[in-house]
Amino acid sequence: MSENVVTVQNLIKHYKDVKAVDGISFAVKRGEIFGIVGPNGAGKTTTIECIASMRRADSGSVDVLGLDPVKDSIVLKRRIGLQQQESEIQDRLRLWEAMELFSSFYDTVLDWKALLKQLNLWEKKDSFYSALSGGQKKRFFVAMALIGDPEIVFLDEFTSGLDPQSRISIWKLVKELRDQGRTIVLSTHYMDEAEKLCDRVAIIDHGKLTALDSPSNLISMHGGHIRVQFDVGDVFDGESLSRLEGVESVLNDGNVCTLEVSASSTIVEIVKKLDAMGQGLDSFRIEAPTLEDVFLNITGREVRD
Amino acid sequence: MKSPFIAVSKSEFILYLREPSAFFFTLIFPLLLMLLFASIWGNEPFPGEEFGYVDFSVTAFMGMVMVTSFIMSLTTSMAAYREKGILKRFRAAPVTPFSILMGQLAAVFAVTVAGVILLLIAGFAIYDLKFMGNFFEFVFVFHLSAVSIAALGFIPASLAPTARSGEVIANIMYFPMLFLSGAALPHSMLPDFLKDISLLLPLTHAIKLMQGVWLGGHFWDYPVHLAVLIGFVFAGLFVSVRFFRWE
Ligand SMILES: Nc1ncnc2c1ncn2[C@@H]1O[C@H](COP(=O)(O)OP(=O)(O)O)[C@@H](O)[C@H]1O
Ligand SMILES: [Mg+2]
């Protein structure tokens, strides 16, 4: 088994009367992409901030690279990088000046020119920070998080507000970072993103950890049934399909027929049956359960507000 | 290894140059005030003395430059950084509050020196300003005064939660100091009870110490002023670093 780089035990954090994190425990392994998912207000940011030495937990223990984020704050910050959900730098600083400034805080640094190029910000290097668009700012803070050549990179809501193209290029970057041997801890409320990117996902709701596993395990355990859909004419007998083994339910609303099936092998039988019935298969589609369904099944709610 | 302190001072200095409005209060306003008073009183030697109004009060205007930079500029800039979340971004990096404060200080210190040089140029060129003390002693008391006032400015700079509150606190500290300590009005014009109050302000001690050395005294002749200024250095540093607020 590979070594744990982050160990959190029974973490609790209040803000006045809000219990933001309510007894969370988990460990992150070296070299993995670890996702923290959950709706807004679930406690993702607070959890990350307690780990990345930005906040002191009320109780519980946090160990990062063998260090205590409260006592060894500066030493730890030299070895990690944090992209905050919300932060700013001075409006009238040019990007290259900010990169130089923050480079001076670390003993070993990555080449900021390469980072800006990689994040598609090279043409902007002489611009003032205030002249960047929201998406450019977001990407810039990813570059800032990487500048100190971190062993662990924390990315908090790293793609919210980004256009699809930027999201895809940051996903690629995250995988490259992992391939370089870094550990990535990210938070997102996009379930598809967590599913595509993460080796393991922790689902957080109301400050509590509700599930933790690889996306595929979570889906096979909590995802529910596969859905099969096809368009039908006015007269369609769904009854004969419901007798097939593995078909859990049939819903025929007159235009679309939706089946829930518990095993993928059943799909073959459905197709054969439809063909025998003379039903066209043009509109036939299969929907596998996703992390979105996992969240819904575990918490009883949609992840979006 | 690169120094965070030098990098912060460099970037802060660049940012200062890009915000020209700050120049007026630090560089121009004290100069205008000195020229205004000097045009009224001239610099003829006072009866029975070797020095005149400008020789006597140039150090007070230096004090005014210091208060403008180290209390006004520092507090408003740090409070705005705090409110906007800029300090939060610094906090994610391995950099201490002390480096940030000292970097800011170094940047405004450069502007302070420029302001003082402007005062001196005007004084020497127009009013035949006389320096009667020892140069190195004056450099010493000038720096002690600067560091002491800066340490006091560190306290609101470390604590003010918003730009607005930073401005209010800075003004509350700035104007009484300006009027009570002899920077804007000659100290001798104050009624006695205000003179007593003014002794609580570091700027009063800074101005009296610099004035004493400027007019030919020695710094060791002013143990109380020295002690008060040194006391403010330690108190200011302790409070600001111990209670520094990032957010
Ligand atoms: N600085 C703060 N002061 C007071 N309450 C806060 C603060 N930050 C977060 N909270 C509250 O704590 C809870 C968890 O927030 P957060 O950790 O930001 O969740 P997430 O990142 O999952 O959206 C929310 O109810 C939020 O309103
Ligand atoms: Mg958040």
Describe this structure in words.
- Chain A has 305 residues and is an alpha/beta fold.
- Chain A has two domains: 4-221, P-loop containing nucleotide triphosphate hydrolases (Rossmann fold, 3-Layer(aba) Sandwich); 225-288, Alpha-Beta Plaits (2-Layer Sandwich).
- Helix content of chain A is 32%, strand content 27%.
- Chain A has eleven helices and 13 strands.
- Chain A has helices at 44-51, 73-77, 95-103, 112-118, 134-146, 164-179, 191-197, 215-222, 239-242, 265-276, 291-299; strands at residues 4-15, 18-29, 33-37, 59-64, 80-83, 152-156, 183-188, 200-205, 208-213, 226-231, 247-252, 256-261, 285-287.
- Chain A has a six-stranded mixed sheet with strand order 5-6-7-3-8-9, sandwiched between helices. In chain A, strands 11-12-10-13 form a four-stranded antiparallel sheet. Chain A has a three-stranded antiparallel sheet with strand order 2-1-4, covered by helices on one side.
- In chain A, strand 8 and strand 9 form a beta hairpin.
- The longest helix of chain A is centred in the middle third of the chain and has 16 residues, at 164-179.
- Chain A starts with a strand and ends in a 6-residue tail after the last helix.
- Chain B has 247 residues and is mainly α.
- Chain B has one domain.
- In chain B, helix 1 (4-17) crosses helix 5, helix 2 packs parallel to helix 5 (97-127) and helix 6 (135-159) runs parallel beside helix 10.
- The radius of gyration of chain B is 18 Å and the shape is globular.
- Classes of the chains: A alpha/beta (305), B mainly alpha (247).
- Chain A binds chain B through residues 52, 54, 74-75, 77-78, 82, 84, 86-90, 92-93, 97-98, 100-107, 141, 144-145, 148, and chain B through 1-4, 6-8, 10-11, 14-15, 18-19, 81, 84-86, 88-89, 91-96.
- Bound molecules: adenosine-5'-diphosphate and magnesium ion.
- Adenosine-5'-diphosphate is lined by residues 15, 18, 20, 38, 40-46 of chain A.
- Residues 44-45, 85, 156-157 of chain A line the site of magnesium ion.
